[in-house]
Amino acid sequence: MPYAMKPLACDPAAIDGMSERIIVSHYENNYGGAVKRLNAITQQLAELDWATAPVFVVNGLKREELVASNSMILHELFFESLGASAASADLLAQLEQDFGGMDAWSAQFAAMGRALGGGSGWVLLAWSQRDRKLINTWASDHTCNLAGATPILALDMYEHSYHMDFGAAAAKYVDAFMNNLNLAGASAKLAQLKGL
Ligand SMILES: [Fe+2]
Q1: What are the pLDDT digits (tens) for 8-57?
Q2: Which residues surround ligand 1, an ion (CB under 5 A)?
Q3: From the CA atom positions of the chain, what is the Rg in Å?
Q4: Which string of DSSP letters, residue by residue, matches 144-195?
């Protein structure tokens, strides 16, 4: 199989306000499902006769490849985003420059999560290489990403992320996520992107 599941990046028993059951289910079923789907799509693409394949087959497989690829990648980042830790001085300075500080960034990011509650999608904190700045980006599905930007934190707003623990109370899940941010992990990702 060309794609393999990464180990669960966070300790599912140590995320305050979120159950081990929902994190493990999310990891095994939703993340694991995306990896399995991507492998099946990759296999079908490898066997495709590109000269004769109908356009709807080409479009369908390539679209589903993108959906499954980004679902895999963003879920890996989501689990890496959990596990409370402190931001580096550089991340704090960047948040100050681009948002007016950690609290202002956090208020914006959480509001975007709540706004997707009851629907689905992602909220991403991404580093735009073009503009050398951090930006909170909105995604209604796995395929929405700012071109050229690399996410360093990911909040999954699909209902499977919270329904088992919080029912329809998406805002409580957003609060729990914000209380467990792995800011040290985001700091390391930002430093690598900046070439520090
Ligand atoms: Fe998910």
Answers
A1: 999 999 999 999 999 999 999 999 999 999 999 999 999 999 999 999 99
A2: 30, 156, 158
A3: 18
A4: ---TTEEEEEEEE-SGGGTHHHHTT-HHHHHHHHHTTBBHHHHHHHHHHHHT
Q: Which pLDDT belongs to residue 38? A: 98
Distance (Å) from CA 74 to ligand 1 centroid? 8
For ligand 1, the distance from its centroid to the CA atom of residue 71, given in whole angstroms, is 8
Domain that holds residue 73: 20-80
Distance 70 CA to ligand 1 centre (A): 11
d(CA 68, CA 108): 28
The alpha carbon of 20 and the centre of ligand 1 are apart by a number of angstroms equal to 15
Please indicate, yes or no, whether residues 66 and 135 belong to a single structural domain of this protein: no
Residues 99 and 38 in one domain: no
**Distance of alpha carbon 178 from alpha carbon 93, whole angstroms:** 19
Asked whether the predicted pLDDT for residue 1 surpasses 90, the reply is: no
Output the CA 161–ligand 1 centroid distance in Å: 5
Specify whether 40 is located in the same domain as 102: no
Does the residue 24 lie in any domain? yes
